[in-house]
Design a protein that fits this description.
Shape: elongated
Number of domains: 2
Strand content: over 45%
Order of helices and strands: EEEEEEEEEEHEEEEEEEEHH
Distance between the termini: 86 Å
Structural class: mainly beta
Amino acid sequence: MFNPQLIDEPIDVEIKSSTISLGLIEGVTSVVREVGGELTIDVRAVGTSRDPHVAGRVDVRNAKFLAVASGSRYKNVRAAMALAADKVTVESLHVEDADGDSLDVHGSLGTHELRVGDLEVEVTAHRFEVMRNNFGRVDVDAAVEVRGRWEAPRIAGIITIDSGTLQVDEILVRTLFQPYSTEETAITDIDPVAALNPWDRLGLDLFLRVPSTLRMAGDNVQVSPGTPIGLGDINLRAVGDLYLYKDPAQPLYITGSLDSVTGTYRFQGRSFTLDPTSSINFRGDLNPELYVTVQREISAVQTRVTIAGPLNEPELRLSSTPALDASDILSLIVFNTSTNELSALQQEQLAIRAGTPERRGR
C-alpha cells in the first residue's frame, strides 16, 4: 500500500479491534504523559493498494492526558470518527480541562489515494484552559475554523482571554537568560507525534481579544541577569486587541496594542500609581514595545519611573518634577531624602542598588 513502485493491486482488508489502552501512546512520544482511555477500531478497506476506500468507525472513550508543553491536564476526552469513501467525518471530539470546561471539534477531512485533502473543521471552547505551568495560567473562549488542505491548513477566528495570569518574571528568565538550544536533533531522537506538528505549514488569521481578565505579575523583574536594580514588582491588568497573522513557512506576525494598563507597581519597595497612557504595542514581531510610566510624590517631589523600549531590551528611566539627577531620584525613592543627606552607609547601599561605583562626600 505504501510503496508506489509496486504494482497496483486490489485489496480487501478488514481491521477490527478489541478495546485498546491509549496508554500505549506514551511508548512513542514525550508530547503527552499520564495517558489513559480506550480506543476501538472497526474499519474495512477495499479498492486498490494505491487508492483504498475505507469505511467504518474509530472511537475514543474516557481518555485523559497531561500536555507536557503547557502543563494542562485534560479528561473525559471522547471522539467519534466515521470513515467513508474519500472522507473522514469527525462526528464529535470533546475535551474537558481540569475544571470541566470544554473544547469541542466537529468537521471533516477529505481523503484520496492515502492522502488527506480538504479540511472543514470547527472548534469552539468556553473557559478552556490552554496553559498551567511556571509561566502562568490562561483560559480562553474560542470560535475558530480550520480550512484549506492538510498540507497547508489555515486557522481563522476569534480567541478571547477568559481569565489568565502571566508570570512575567518567569517568562523573561526563559526568553532572555535561557535561550533554547539550537543544536540539531539526531534523526534517531525524533518524536513521531511531535513530528506531526503543523506549525511550519500552517496559516493564521486570528483576532485575540484581551479584556481586563489578563493579569501580568512578577517579583523583582529583571532584564539582565544579576543586576542589582531591576524593573520592580508588577501586578497589572492589560486590555486590548491583537491580530495574529502567518503564512505557511513564514514567521508569525502580531499587530495591535494593549492600550489600557491598570494595577499596582512597586519599585525599590515603594508603591507607584500607573499613568493611564501606559501601553504595550505589537508592531509585527514577538518583541513588543513597552511604554509604562508610574509616579509617586515623595517629599514634595513628583517622581516618575518609565519602562520603555522593546521587551528584550527595555530601559528604566527616572525623572521628576522639579527636575533632579537620577541618583537623587533613586535616593528619594529608597531613603526618602536626597543624596546630600545620606550617611556613608546609605550612600554605599544606594551605590549597590544602582549598580554604580560608590560615591562619598556629597
